[in-house]
Design goal:
Elements: E1 3-5, E2 21-23, H1 30-34, H2 42-48, H3 60-83, H4 87-108, H5 119-124, H6 133-142, H7 147-174
Antiparallel strand pairs: 1-2
Helix pairs in contact: 3-4, 3-7, 4-7, 6-7
């Protein structure tokens, strides 16, 4: 399987460290990557690395709901970890869902994630986004194993799902 060095623009903890790489199977499905730690930002990184791949932001009606569905199926697992006061077990699924949230934000705005290093300024420029999303998401990214981060992420997913489907309806009315 090909190995991809994480570009500097995506080297942001807790998602990636400086010398991280990801391996990928060119024939694997979107759902396979959705459930793997190796799949975090894979399509965005491939785009940034000029590697031809699936571009889910060009088919947001198809792929963004899959991110919402993955959140729904993982949310209870994370809740159980926090209920058991097991922050260590909650950390990895929280990081994966934070990545999916960022992907959903960019893809629903019809663009890939260009950089994690500059995520705050890029997220602030998006047209469709929850109120104060940068401030609300910052704490969760800095402290993904805190219960408050989980509550904030849960609220943000509810808001962007509503915004996403509202935008789809508006686009259909406009004939887009």
């Amino acid at each position: 399987m090909p190995e991809l060095i994480i570009p500097k623009s995506f080297q942001l903890e807790p998602f990636f460290k400086t010398e991280d790489t990801i391996t990928y199977d060119e024939d694997a499905s979107f759902s396979f990557f959705l459930h793997q730690r190796q799949g975090l930002f894979l399509f965005d990184i491939m785009k940034a690395s000029h590697i031809k791949s699936l571009q889910p932001w060009n088919e947001r009606e198809r792929y963004v709901p899959k991110l919402f569905s993955d959140w729904t199926s993982t949310e209870e697992v994370i809740a159980i970890h926090f209920r058991n006061r097991d922050r260590v077990q909650a950390r990895d699924p929280m990081i994966k869902q934070l990545a999916h949230f960022i992907e959903a934000m960019f893809w629903m705005n019809k663009q890939p994630v260009h950089s994690l290093v500059t995520w705050r300024s890029e997220l602030a420029r998006l047209e469709i986004k929850p109120v104060n999303v940068v401030e609300r998401l910052s704490f969760s990214i800095e402290q993904p194993d805190h219960y408050h981060s989980f509550i904030q992420l849960k609220a943000l997913f509810v808001e962007i799902e509503k915004l996403f489907y509202k935008q789809l309806l508006l686009d259909r009315k406009k004939g887009m």
